[in-house]
Amino acid sequence: MNPFYRVDNRLVHGQIIATWMPHLRLQRILIASDAVPNNPLQMTMFRMAIPQQLQFEALPIKNAARALAARTYGNERVLVLFESVTDAVRLFNGGNPFAFLNIGNVHHAADRRRFTNAVYLSDADLEQLKGLMDRGTRVEIRSLPTETPIDLRLALSEVR
Predict the structure, then answer these.
(1) Using CA atoms, how far apart are residues 137 and 86, in angstroms rounded to an integer?
(2) pLDDT score, position 53
């Protein structure tokens, strides 16, 4: 799948570099976020963590949607990272509807339901994800490429 879209509130970290990068044979990491491009400390940390052979950029969501819709990156293998489900939905609605979304890590909070040890989703997250699924996006929960993915639509139907 190219690009590979992933919600991971940690964004760039060891799992991304050590497992997803070789699994997807990445050439570029794109963070779609309105906050990250304006955070010099975060940008410096990400540049230090990402191997030099990989292209990296962080763009505001509106700009990322435009770049992806215009196929700016051609056939490069791209990982698009979001901090939240809301950011993923904003990119989708901003002109870059994607067919697949991986939910890799969403921290625990009091108002969130546990799906795995790494993924906790609130009712608001679930409503947004149902909206994407109703528009044809397949949503999976999977932290590592070696894990068996959980189809969110099936997981929700089993809960009822």
Answers:
(1) 15
(2) 93
